Amino acid sequence: MPKTGGNVVDIELTINGERTTVEAGSADDLATVLRQHGYIGVKCGCDGGTCGASKVFVDGEVRMACGMEAADADGSEIQTVAALGTQADLHPVQQAFVDNFAVQCGFCIPGMVIQAVALLDSNPDPTEREVREALDDNVCRCTGYQKPVEAVLDAAERMRGEQSVAADGGQSVSASPRGAESTGCCGGGCDE
Amino acid sequence: MSNDEETAKADGGTASRSETAEDERSEEHPLEWDEPENNDKAPDERDSVSHRTEKYDDRKLVTGQAKYTADYEERYPDLAYAAVVRSDIPHGRVTDINTSAAEAMDGVDAVLTPESDAVPDAKYTSAGQSYPEPSPWDMHVLNEHVRYIGDPIAAVAAEDRATATAAVESIEVSYEKYDYVTDPEDAFDEDAPQLFEDGEVENEIVGHDYDRNRMAHIGGELGDVDAALDGDTHVHETEWETIRQSHANVEKHTSLAYTNEDDRHVLITSTQVPNHTRRQLAHLFDIPIRDIRVQKPRVGGGFGGKQAMVIEPIPLALSLATDRPVLYEASREEEFYAMRSRHPMKVKAKTAVTEDGDIKAIDIYALSNTGAYGSHGMTVAGNVGSKPMPLYSKVPNARFEADIVHTNTPQTGAMRGYGAPQGTLALEGHLDEVARDLGLDPIEFRRRHHMEVGDLDEIAGMMGGEGANRRIRSCGLDECIERGKDAIGYDDLEQPDEDHLHRGIGMALSAQGTGVAGDELGAAQIMMNEDGSFHLQVGGVDIGTGADTAFLQIAAEVLGCDEGEIIVKSSDTDVTPFDYGAYASSTTYISGMAVKKAAEDAKERILNWGSKLLGEPVGDLETGDGTVYSEASDDSVTLEDIGYEAAYGDDEREHILGKGTHCTEESPPPFAAQFADVTVDETTGEFEVQKLVVAVDCGVAINPGMAEGQIEGANHMSYEMAVSDGITLDDEGRAEVADFDEYGLPSATETPPIESILVETHEPTGPFGAKSVAEVPTNTVPPALSNAVRDAVGVRIREMPITAEKIRSKLDEREI
C-alpha cells in the first residue's frame, strides 16, 4: 500500500457500504486516503478543492474529497462513483453520460456523475440552467459542458420514466447512490 | 546535428503564379485521386463507420475504473515520489544549492542537482516532434542558468509526497541575478537582456538572432504583395493580440519511471507522443532506443500540452539514481507556471482591396512570445499564416512573416490549433472590418474569395513547408455557412425591447490541416484469434479523444465484424507499431488509415481461407456480420470457423496477421463556419453570448457523437480565448494563477450553449472519407465574438480578452 505523510492515525469509514478502518497521515486529505485504499475513481486534478474531480458523497452530501482532511471524515459514510453502478449495470446517470457522448478523457467524469446524481436526487426535473448551476464547480476541459448537460437532462427524463413505472408497480430506481446500504460496492467485477 | 534542411522549408522563398508553373503543379498535384472503391461508401452501406458507436472505454470511465498514470501507484510497493525545486527569480545563475537539510531528512532517497551524475548534461528540446526536430535544443533537465520563474533546478525523490515536498522546501538556492525582460517587443530590442549567448543553442532554427532574443524568423511570399499594396486599392491595417492560454488538462502531467526485470527503462506516462518521447529520452540519457519502453495508459486530456517530453526526464533520472520506481505528478500550480501554455502573440493584418471588394493582397506579420525556451516556437508561428491564409486561395498576392522572441516568462508549446487561433483572429477580424468599411456583407465578401474543390493551395505552399501546394478535393464551406446561418438565425435577428441592449451576430471561417503534410507516419497490426476475434495493435495515441474507438470502427468496417470482437491496444512502444503521436489533427487520418490498411491486409488472408472452406473463388467473397459470405452462392462461413481452421487445420496453418503503415504528402483542410450571437449593454459594456454555432466539414465523421464532442470542446476552449485573461504574469514574469479558482476557464454556467453541426463531405485521401475535426473549431470564437460585438454596438475589440471594460471604454471614446 502506498505510504502516507505525517503521523499515522486510524480512521473509521464506511466506504461504499463496507465498514473499514483505514490508516491515514494526520495531514492527508480524504481523496489521497481513498485513492491509497484503491478507490481510484476519486480523481485529483488540482491542489485542493477547486476542480471537482474528487467529488464523493460524505454522509449523503457532495464533498470534494481533496478539499477535506481525512480525519474530519472519521465515522462517515462515503460513497464514491464505484457505488453507483457497474460496467454491466450502469446507474442511469452513468448510462446517459455514455449514450450522450458526454465523456471524452473521462478524468472529471466521476466527480461530474456524483454531482449529477445529487442534483437529480433533490430535483428530478431540473431545467438546463439548474443543471449548469449544479455542475458549475466541476472543471471539464474536453466537452464544453454541452454533452454533460444534455446527459444529465436525459438521465432526469429516464429516471422520471422509471419512477413512473415504479408507481405502476414496476421496479423502482432511486436517484440515491446504489450500494449505499448493501455490502460491497458492485457485487464483483470492479476494482474497488 | 543540423536542422537546415527542416527549417529551410519554413524559411522558403518567393513563389509565383506563372501559368507554366501552374500546369506543372497540376501534374504534380492532380485533382483526381486513385481512391480504392471500398473507401467511398454511401451512408446506408456503412456498417460501423459513421455510426454513433459507444466509446469503448466509456464504461470504465464513468465507473471510475479506468487507469491513468497516477492510478498505477498501487502496483509499485517501493514507489518513491518526486518533487522539483524551481527558480523563483526570472533570470540569473545559480551560485549555490544547499541540499544538506533535505539530504538529512528521514525518507529522502535522492536529491539531484545539475551536477549530479544521474542528471543528463545534454541539451534538448521538450517539443515532441518529428526528427530532425524543428525546435532548438536550448533546454537542460536541471538548470544552473535559469531563465524564468519555474525553471527546474533540483529534484527530490522521497518515501511519500509530503516528505518530497518538505525536502524541496528545505533546499536553499543562491543566485546571481541577471537583468530580465518579459515583454516581447522590449526583448527584441538590441539593448535588452539576452537569454542565450550566440552559439549556446544547438540545433538552431532559421533566422535566429540571439543578440536580439530571436529564436527564429520565418516568412514566405506569393506574388508581389508590395506592388498590390501600392496599387489602386484600399489598404487596411489592423493589429490583434491574444492571451497566454493554459491547456488546463484536468489530469496533470504525470510520469512513473522504473527499470524492469529485464533491465529495461519503463515510463508509464501521460503523453501524446510515446515514440517521440522514447527517442528523446534515448538522446538525453544516452540509452539505446530499444532499452526504453514508453507506455501510455488512459490520458486525462492533452490539448498539445503533452505533445512534449515535459517532465519524463526527472522521474527517470531519480529512478536511475535510487534504483526504485519514481512517480512525478506535477502540482496544479506547476501546471500554470512551469508546464506549457499557448504562445501569446501580436498579429498585424494588412490587405489591399479594390473598391468593389476584390482582395488583391493579404499580408500578415506575427510577433510570437515563445517564453524562456523555443519548443514549438517556429512551427507554431508558421501555422499563424499557413493555416488561416489558404482559406482565401483566390487572393493572388500573399505574404506572411513572423519573429519568434524569447522573454523571461513561462514556457510555451503546442496547443490545440497550433498558431491557427492567433492567425484566425487577425485575419477573420480584419476581413470583417474591411467588409464593414466598404459596405459589403461580411459573408458575401468572404464567399468571393474562399477556397473550393479543385483549388491548388499555393498559399500554404508559399513557405515551402507543410501542405505545400495541396490540391483541395473536399470542401463543404458553403454548406457550413448556410447551415450555420440558419442555426443562429442570421437573417431574422430580433433586437431586444430595451433601448440600451443591442444584439449582434458575428461570424468567422477557419481551415486547419489534417496531419503535417509529408511528415507523418502511423502503423498498425491486426492479429486474428482462433475464435474469430481480433487484436488491434496501433501506435495512434488516444488522449481522451476517442481515437481508439474510431480505430475499432474503421477495422470493424473492413473486417465485417462487430467492434466488440476487436480488442484494441494502443501506444506501448514495446508492443504497438510506430506512430508519430496525437498532434496536428493527424490521428484519425494517418493512424486510422494505417488501421484500415492493416485490416485490409488481414481481410485478404481471411478471404483466402474463406475461399478454401467454401470452395469458391476469392473474387466472389466478402466479409460481413462476422462471416465470409459468397455473393454468388449465398453460402457463408463464420470468422470463428476460419480462425480455428487457420490455427488448427490439418494440412496447412497460418496465424492471420495484417499490417498497415501509412504516410502521405496530403493534408486536406477541414473547414468551419463559426457564428456568435451576442447582446451588449451599451451603458455598461457588459455582454452576454446567447449561443455559439459552429458548422464543421470534417469529411465523413467516423463517429458523429465523438466528432460533435470534439467540436464543442474545441469551441469552449476557443470561447475561453475570447473572454478569459488566461495566465496573467506579474512584472517579473511570475504566473498570477495557481489553481483553477484563479484561472478563467468558463464554467458550466459561464459557457453559452454550443450547437455543433457536422457537414459531411467525402475526402478521398482519408479513411472512409474522413479528415480532421478536433482543432479547427478552436480557432474561431475570438474573431466571431469580436465581429459580433462590432455588429451589435459598432466598436471593435482587437486585444483579447473581450471585456465589458474594453467595450465600455471604446463606446465612451466614440461618444466623445
From TrEMBL, chain A:
Listed SUPFAM superfamilies: 2Fe-2S ferredoxin-like, CO dehydrogenase ISP C-domain like
Occurrences of domain [2Fe-2S]-binding (ranges): 80-152
Disordered: annotated segments: 163-192
InterPro entries per UniProt: 2Fe-2S-bd, 2Fe-2S-bd_dom_sf, 2Fe-2S_ferredoxin-like_sf, 2Fe-2S_ferredoxin-type, Beta-grasp_dom_sf, Diverse_Oxidoreductases
Keyword Cytoplasm found: no
Keywords tagged on the record: 2Fe-2S, Iron, Iron-sulfur, Metal-binding, Oxidoreductase
Domain 2Fe-2S ferredoxin-type: 14-72
Keyword set includes Metal-binding: yes
Name under which the protein is recorded: (2Fe-2S)-binding protein
Species this chain originates from: Haloarcula argentinensis
UniProtKB/TrEMBL annotation, chain B:
SUPFAM superfamilies: CO dehydrogenase molybdoprotein N-domain-like (SSF54665), Molybdenum cofactor-binding domain (SSF56003)
Keyword Mitochondrion found: no
Region span, Disordered: 1-65
Biased composition (Basic and acidic residues): 26-61
SMART domains in alphabetical order: Ald_Xan_dh_C
Domain Aldehyde oxidase/xanthine dehydrogenase a/b hammerhead: 63-179
Organism superkingdom: Archaea
The entry's keywords: Molybdenum, Oxidoreductase
UniProt protein name: Molybdopterin-dependent oxidoreductase
Source taxonomy: Archaea, Methanobacteriati, Methanobacteriota, Stenosarchaea group, Halobacteria
